[in-house]
Amino acid sequence: MEQASELDRPLRGKRILVADDEFLIAVLLEETLIGAGAEIVSAATLAVALRSAKAELLSAAVLDVRLIQETTEAVADILTARGVPFLFYSGQALPERIRERHPGAKVLMKPTRLHEIIQALVELTSH
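Request: output the structure for the sequence above.
Response:
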């Protein structure tokens, strides 16, 4: 019985920052990750994302490239400095400056199947 639970909830015990300013996408993503066992820290603005990246105990993060008009580059910088793995989930290409600063960052383009996001987070948090 426990094995089925582990398979159904592959993000169990993980605390994930979801930084996305598109309400419906954020809610769908958060509900999916909660269903996979994760605890969620939500951020719809850059200020909240920065504060969360600095202060929260995180296992990983999903970052939209832009929150309103600002990029999440500074959030990615903080997460990198703290050793917190992250991926970008966006409807637009990663700006060159961010690609140069975070060349190994995984980028998933919207729309992506939700199970692919879960799988990417499992891979990020298993290292």
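The chain is about 45% helix and 20% strand.
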